[in-house]
Structures are given as C-alpha cells and as structure tokens.
Amino acid sequence: MNLSLMQNQWQEQFSYAYLRAVAAAAGFQVTKPEMDFCKIDLEISAIDEHLHDALPKLTLQVKCDSDFKFQNNALVYSLDIDTYQRLRSNRTLHPRILVVVTVPRDQGAWVSQTEDELIMRHCAYWKSLEGEPASTNTTAQTVYLPRAQIFDVASLSYLMGRLNQGQRP
C-alpha cells in the first residue's frame, strides 16, 4: 500500500477519535454516515431532549493536516473545490462546518499517555463556510479558519446551543 495513502488513513482515524472525544466530553452523540455523498464525515447530535428540546444536529466535514501553517491568526487550509462549494450552501436542514485537525508530522508524537492524562496533539479548528462567495477556482479554494475557533467542549456546546435555538453556526 502507498505510504502516503496509509498516512492519510491514519490521520483520518486520529481526527475522528479526537472529535469523538470532544463530543463525548460535551455530552453529545457522534455518528458516521455510511456513505459520504454530501461531504459529511461525522454528525454530532443531542440525545437529551430535556436539555436540547430541538435535538439539534451538526454535520462535519473533517480534514487532518500535518503540513499546516498559520497566517494572520488563522489556520490556512486548501480545500478541494467540490467540498468548498457544498459547504458554502445555506440550503441544508442541518448546518455543516469544516473542522481541520492539526497533527505533528511525526505520527509517534500524536499521542502521549500517563495514568493521569491522555494528550492528543495538536488542535482542531472549525469554520462555517455557509454563505461564503462562490469560487471561480477549478481545483481548490484557500480557507482561513480563525485560531480563536478551536473545536473544544466549550465551542461545541455553544454551537449546539445556537442550533437548539434555531440559529446557524
């Protein structure tokens, strides 16, 4: 098997585990659609109608990058044009966001563990592309994910609270 392809698979699995850990800590359920026709990798939903009467659902397009860079306080990510065009649509029942998980280049540094803690390196950033302008590019669109928009328990709880109130991300 191609080493680059294997690396992509490991990054994908790591990013899913990272996001599942955040969602579990926030008290939300994560599911993975069987097919990825709509550029949805994971779905996060509320499971307690007493806390979230609308039972909101957030859908995620997940990417993982070990060759990342920051510019003007934002993570710079090159997104394939088809995914960009789909994520910018505002005609979806459940909002979609882009989540990019950054990892060290050395796979051995992704995780460290003791009896007291599990550390997953580095970080995940999110952005809603809903309403972004159409792109005239043919292959990719550069997307800037603000460093302030870390995908963590607090931000996920905030996003789900907005959805519960009928708002968008």
Task: Please give a structural write-up.
The chain is an alpha+beta fold and 169 residues long. The chain has one domain (3-164): Trna Endonuclease, Chain: A, domain 1 (3-Layer(aba) Sandwich), CATH 3.40.1350.10. It is built from three helices and ten strands; from the N terminus they run αβββββαβββββα. The chain has a five-stranded mixed beta sheet with strand order 1-2-3-6-9, with helices on one face. Strand 4 (69-71) and strand 5 form a beta hairpin. Helix 1 crosses helix 3 (153-164). The mean pLDDT is 94.
Average pLDDT confidence is 94
Q: Which residue ranges are poorly predicted, with pLDDT under 50 across at least 5 consecutive positions? A: none
CATH class: Alpha Beta
The fold-level CATH name is: Trna Endonuclease, Chain: A, domain 1
Strand content: 25-35%
Give the helix tally.
3
What is the chain-wise order of helices and strands? HEEEEEHEEEEEH
Structural class estimated from helices and strands:
alpha+beta
Number of structurally distinct domains: 1
Q: Major β-sheet, in short?
A: 5 strands, mixed
Strand order of the largest sheet: 1-2-3-6-9
* CATH arch. level architecture: 3-Layer(aba) Sandwich
The rounded Rg comes to 16 Å
Number of strands: 10
Tell me the helix content.
25-40%
Distance between the termini: 39 Å
Overall shape: it is globular
Key terms:
10 strands; DUF4365 domain-containing protein; alpha+beta; Trna Endonuclease, Chain: A, domain 1; 5-stranded mixed β-sheet; 3 helices; 3-stranded antiparallel β-sheet
